[in-house]
Design a protein that fits this description.
four-stranded antiparallel sheet, 2 domains
Length: about 325
């Protein structure tokens, strides 16, 4: 299964108290269902491609309401040919919708009544229901982090964003064709969402993969820095050796301070050594310590004199 399916599977098996169940079901019905009228009367028709989500809706409706439920399974006629799980809920439809906070005297609402999510636990259950209804999240093994929930209208999208803000999850929205998409790009915020929704096993999997991948990326980044520093050090060493050879050729090295001459000899003996390594060698040979910046300053003196010789002799 995909990571999205794993998250929905875990959320579908959660046990809720009565108010949490109402909140989760409110999101599921609002985002998955439509109202149908047939010879049997008015019905709530809910469809999903996820069998676990379909079972969760069936179980919640059965436990909460006196309703008749018809189930169906059909294959979508497209390239993927995914299975579509359908539920038709007959009975006191308007009473069910009123209880879920998505129906009033004005008709169907664009967002649930505040009483459905007034408690943080109910808000978490609502977010879990919203993700089960129309959410997706990239596997942590992929190169990019992305979690999204599709909302039917902008009012509902703003409502979802507001719920996430209560848990310090800062989501954004974008319009995609006929729907509004609420999305997260930050790996930390995706972790926060999984925690808020209660998908703890998937959260552990996500965090383990994320930390492992971030660690490897950091190691690679450090390796790249080390390689770049080594290349830079080798280039500087070649330039220093060229300066020293030029000064020796024109017998100019003797005009430099003895400490600078000692550094020049160390460089010739250790062409691949870094400045830090040369500083350690200098202290071992002379008994005097010199810092990396002090070592660099002595090479600057060598370079300046070599530059003067080049100008005088047209090198």
């Amino acid at each position: 299964m995909s990571f999205t399916s794993d998250v929905k599977q875990e959320l579908s098996l959660k046990e809720y108290d009565a108010k949490e169940e109402r909140a989760a079901l409110s999101a599921l019905i609002q985002m998955m269902a439509t109202l149908n009228i047939s010879s049997k009367g008015m019905a709530i028709a809910a469809v999903t491609e996820n069998a676990a989500v379909s079972r969760a809706v069936y179980r919640m409706i059965r436990s909460r309401y006196q309703a008749d439920i018809e189930t169906s399974v059909r294959r979508r006629m497209n390239l993927n040919k995914n299975l579509i799980y359908g539920l038709k809920i007959y009975g006191p439809v308007t009473d069910i919708l009123k209880d879920l906070g998505i129906y009033s005297a004005r008709g169907l609402l664009d967002r649930p009544l505040q009483k459905i999510v007034s408690n943080d636990a109910w808000a978490r259950a609502y977010l879990a229901g919203a993700f089960m209804a129309d959410g997706s999240v990239n596997s942590p093994q992929t190169s990019g982090y992305h979690l999204e929930i599709k909302a039917g209208n902008e009012i509902h999208a703003d409502f979802l964003i507001g719920l996430m803000e209560r848990f310090d999850i800062h989501a954004r929205k974008i319009r995609r064709r006929a729907k509004w998409v609420v999305y997260l790009k930050s790996s930390e915020k995706i972790s926060d969402f999984l925690r808020a929704a209660g998908a703890y096993q998937c959260l552990l999997e996500f965090e383990n993969e994320r930390i492992s991948r971030d660690f490897m990326n950091n190691v690679q980044r450090l390796n790249n820095v080390d390689v770049a520093n080594e290349v830079k050090s080798m280039k500087a060493s070649r330039e220093q050796l060229a300066d020293i050879e030029l000064l020796e050729e024109y017998d100019q090295l003797r005009y430099l301070d003895e400490k600078v001459q000692q550094v020049a000899r160390l460089r010739k003996e250790n062409p691949e050594a870094t400045l830090n390594e040369l500083a350690e060698l200098y202290e071992t040979k002379t008994g005097s310590s010199v810092s990396k910046s002090g070592m660099k300053h002595r090479f600057v003196k060598i370079r300046d004199l070599a530059g003067k010789v080049r100008r005088e002799h047209g090198e």
